[in-house]
Structure formats: C-alpha cells, structure tokens
Amino acid sequence: MGSFEEQLRELKQLTNTAKNVDLARVLGKSPKTISNWKHRDHIPEDIFIKARQISQNSSMATPNGYVELPFYEVEVSAGHGVLVEREDLSSAIIFSEGYLRKEIGVTPNSVLLMPIKGDSMHPTLKHGGVMMVHKVEEFTDDGIYVFRFDSRLMVKRLQYSKAGLKVVSDNGTYEPWELSKKDVQAEDFEVIGKVVWTGQRM
To answer: Per UniProt, what is one Pfam family of this protein (predicted)?
Structure first.
C-alpha cells in the first residue's frame, strides 16, 4: 500500500468521486471516519473491497444515452427528521442522460436519489416517493433542500430571513422555524443538496 493520500486517491477512482464527503456517502461512512483514517494514516482493507465491488457494479453495461443514479436508503424525514447513522448505497436507477442535462439542468455525477419519509412537505413531496438531489455544499437560493442539523437529516424548504434561514414545511400543519446565522455557520449544519425532481407511485 502507498501513502494515505495515494490510498485515498485510489478509493476515489474506484468510486468515481472527487470530494471526501461524496466518498463517505458512497461507502456508507461519515466524513469523520475519513478524518480518522487520515489521523491513523491507515485505511482498512475491507473499505477497498467495498470500493472495488462498487466499481464493478457501476461498470455493468448501461444502454447508450442512459446513466445509473445511486439511490441512498436513508431515513430522510419530511416530518421532524431522523437520526442517521449510516448511508448505504443500495441500488441504482437508470435515467436518460439527455433528460437530466436538458430538462432538469444537472450533470449525472452531481445528483443522487433518496426516499421521501413523512408528510410535512406534502403535497410537493409525498411519503413513499423518490426525490432527486443536486449535490451542493451551501444554500444558494430559496428552494427545497436536504440538510443535516442537530445530527438529523431533513428535507425542508429553506428561505433567506433576517435571522439567517427560515425553515418551511409545505404542509401547513407544521409551523415554520428559524436557523440563525450562528446555526448555519456551525459544524452541525451541512447542506447535502437541493431537490430538483421527484417521482412517486399514484
């Protein structure tokens, strides 16, 4: 094995990721785990085995003009949020690359799919549906975002406010609340991405 940086580079090549946070999500680990690997100057061998499995699965033939999007089986709550301990890459769903680029306006490697849990974003996001999340590192404009706060992963509508950010549920039975500027700048707040598409059973 080479140096830690060489090992990390190999993992990113195998999983087709560029950032540590994306690598962590694909491997089902927290970003803190990668920091621990760096501190110990060692990456466990089972991590490379998992990365090679992911690489082999992603190399399976996909029809020309189509791409596989990863689907994360995590407890993303549209209600009050659920504590998330793992984010396991469980399957992939195929989309037309042209549809992603022209209709939704995203690149295939910048999006992922997640399940919708709860009813607080009804009727925009319905429980049991699937949402496509465009990965971004910070809030840029009003919209529906998946974000982590207070160790919980949530999906809500975020809007600018004088205090910081206003957190709004589309279901009127849920009261809006505020994230202060201090909250937004804290380590415990992280924007995962912006919801750009949703699909569901009728």
So the answer is: Phage_CI_repr
Give the residues of the chain that fall short of pLDDT 70.
Answer: 1-2, 57-62, 74-92, 202
Domain extent, residue 180, equals: 65-202
HEC letters along 143-188: EEEEEEECCEEEEEEEEECCCEEEEECCCCCCCCEEEEHHHHHCCC
Cα–Cα separations (whole angstroms), residue 99 to 19, 29, 56, 95, 167: 25, 31, 25, 7, 30
Q: Alpha-carbon distance 34 to 128, whole Å?
A: 32
Q: Are residues 80 and 159 in the same domain?
A: yes
Are residues 90 and 21 located together in one domain of the fold? no
Q: How far apart are CA 43 and CA 22, in angstroms?
A: 17
